[in-house]
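Dear support,

I submitted the protein below through the web form. The confirmation email said the job was done, but the results page showed an empty box. After a refresh the structure appeared. I'm attaching both so you can tell me whether what I see now is the final result or a partial one.
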Amino acid sequence: MTSSGQEHADHRRVGEAPARRHPEVELTRGERDREIVRLHEEELTLDEIGKRFELSRERVRQILNERGVKPIGVEGQGRQRQRRLRHALDQRDSILSRWRQGQAIGALARELGVAPKAAQRVVDLHATEADSAARRQSLNASSAASDRRYTDHELVAAVRAVAERLGRVPSAQDYVRLARELALPSAPLIYNRMGWAAAVRAAGLAPRPSRRSYTRQWDSSACWIALEGLVDECGHVPSVQEYDRLARGRDDLPSLSTVRNRVGGWAVVRIRLATRLPDA
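What the results page shows now:
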């Protein structure tokens, strides 16, 4: 069968749209399938995973089976979540202490040996306003220290390192995904110091077209992808004021007014993002 014929056959798989790169996250089919496995390990349901990639529940199940992963039933997921939450609650004080110090949920969860989602749930249930204020102070201090620690030359070198790793011009989400693995400066630092497009140009690369020129792509699905990526990046759900400030300086985030028009008020956003795994 020719490659075009194989592609056509793939299109006919149950519940799957024609093969294409998603305009917001630009995943190949292989990258998408690996991300589906990762999300399943994070305990997202088949329906939740399917909505992210415009796939049916059955197609998600097929992809997991193709990757040698047996989908966990709803009841089994519920029991797992309860066990992990109980384990995290046993370490509530340690979780809150590290969270107040500015640690991302994923990092503190690894240190304590608890599930990241369970750790986030502990924070949602037990963090006080004083805890939140202490965390903001820690994050602000950490951001100031990062500004002093990295030179512009080092930020540009970090972008170039990600490009070399990928073999192509990286997107902002590419950088977010690889920055921790490669021990590079954070994406917010690059945005605040230089702006993403300027950093890419300084690295001798051609920036990808700004998504601001494609406003029709900011449908509700695209907004959620961007918002969830931001939570992964920051390790917390931003306040509406913080989001508005970030979105004004970035071309990979919809404006606050667009978010409100596409998905609803910020209270709706916070409820959904509170269950997002910050960085697995």
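Response: this is the final, complete result; the empty box was a page-load delay. The CA atoms of residues 110 and 116 lie 8 Å apart.
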